[in-house]
Amino acid sequence: MIVILIVFALLSSFLCSLILNKQHAAVLMVVLASSQMHAQSQNVIHAILFVAVLHFFYVFLSTRQNKSFLLILLLPIAYILAIFFIQPYKINIYHYLGYLTALFILAWVMLLEWDSKKIAYFLTAYGSYLILTGFLEKALTNAIRVGQAALTVATAYAVVLVVTWTIWIIIVFLSKMHSKKTILLGTFLVFLAIIFSGTRMGLLGIFFGLGLCTLSAVFIESKKFSIIKTVAYSLGIIIALSLLSVIVWNLLPNDLLIKKTFSSLIAGKLDASNMGRVLMWYYAINVFEQNMLLGIGAGNFPEKYKLFLQSMNVYENVGINTHAHNIFLVVLSEHGIIGFLTLGTFVFLCLLQPFLYFLKNRQSPVFYALFSGFIVIAILGLVDAIPMHMPTTGFAAWFLGTCASFGTRRV
After folding, report:
1. How many other CB atoms are there within 10 angstroms of residue 198's CB atom?
2. CA of 30: how far to CAs of 62, 128, 321, in Å?
3. Greater confidence, 407 or 30?
């Protein structure tokens, strides 16, 4: 069934791109298909990489562009080629092919024009897909944690959903695209999906998203306020959201998985999930200290972590997607300082483009939305590896590609 859906999405992308000339809808189809990528799905990676390459070159060759900004893509490409040439460790080729697939999706997205409406429409469709699959999974299987059907892991599902919602709510609220009832309905559905996912980070993400949305509104209107008023409004928003969070939390049933695990965390207890993260962080730091320059290579962490657990006589069944549960430690342990600086520079250059756009369009909500989405990713990345987790790289490619698109100018 999954294979059929992937094939349908990829064929639909060709229909949208080559026949209907709806590139943004084609991007959505490919991003949806990429949510099923993982190192063991070689045929899926091959298919999505092939489709992404075709779409990229179709847009690149069929439209007149200022292609100078594409030189930035040489940075990660040069890094991947250097790793394959030097081969400093065992190379899990499909991890790198997955990253290359995301890079072509990013390059394709970067060549398209993205304004507030197109971003909002994309996020509405993508978020609706995540919510619908989560609800169907709950209804059909009564799963304790939903999200595996959409992004293979419940945590990835919750984090990507809350980032999608954060960008969406800031754009539609500040642009007044939808009524307040529609925005509240969308927010409620996201909240419900997060509850079903059982992911604590998802709840924190909603709190951060609401705070960033209201702060963005204050900053846009700050020309009308004095500095004291702006600070007062900001503090009032934070206090109000904190009180609202406490009220909602107390209204949740005590038997919910997400409330049980969160209560354990608040009480300072190390449950199995928390202890697992602490061990992974410890080992990732140790790995980085021993392989500071180039790391141990993408996808090599699970195998080495299993050996580490065996050496401590606490061996457990570690899934194939095991990682350091911290985006910064993931990059440092697997790619070392060189990989960290390469990726950091690339992300910075992509994020710089909407900021430069913001300097000329200070009332536009686009910068506030994209920057807020990045903040949520960075904060939640402290306790997980999204978006380096392969099924989420397609969404990350769309996000960074959209940011970078503000630096490509038509000639």
Report:
1. 22
2. 20, 16, 22
3. 30
Confidence (pLDDT) at 275: 66
pTM equals 0.89
Rounded Cα gap, residues 89 and 32, in angstroms: 32
Query: Helix count (H) and strand count (E) of the chain?
Result: 17, 0
Structure tokens at 362: 């200070």
CA-to-CA distance for 354 and 371, rounded, in angstroms?
8
Spatial contact of 39 and 18, defined as CB atoms under 8 Å apart: no
Alpha helices in 142-226 (DSSP H): 148-151, 154-175, 180-197, 200-220
The tally of domains found in the chain comes to: 1
What is the share, in percent, of the chain residues with pLDDT greater than 70? 82
Distance CA 99, CA 331 (A): 13
Answer yes or no: are the C-beta atoms of 338 and 79 closer than 8 Å.
Answer: yes
Query: Which residue type sits at 379?
Result: I
Structure tokens given for 257: 């998985």
> Would you say 18 and 59 are in contact if contact means Cβ atoms under 8 Å apart?
no
Q: Per the domain annotation, does 287 fall within a domain? A: no
Q: What is the mean pLDDT of the chain?
A: 85
Q: Does residue 230 sit within a domain?
A: yes
Q: Write the single-letter amino acid at 185.
A: L
pLDDT at 410: 46
Peptide bond between residue 387 and the one before it cis (omega within 30 degrees of 0): yes
180 in a structural domain: yes
Predicted confidence band at 34 (pLDDT cuts at 50, 70, 90)? very high
Render pLDDT for 154-203 as a digit per residue (tens, 0 to 9): 999 999 999 999 999 999 999 888 888 999 899 999 999 999 998 888 88
Amino acid identity at 94 = Y
Residues of the domain holding 174? 2-266+324-405
Contact 231, 218 (CB under 8 A): no
Within-domain flag for 283: no
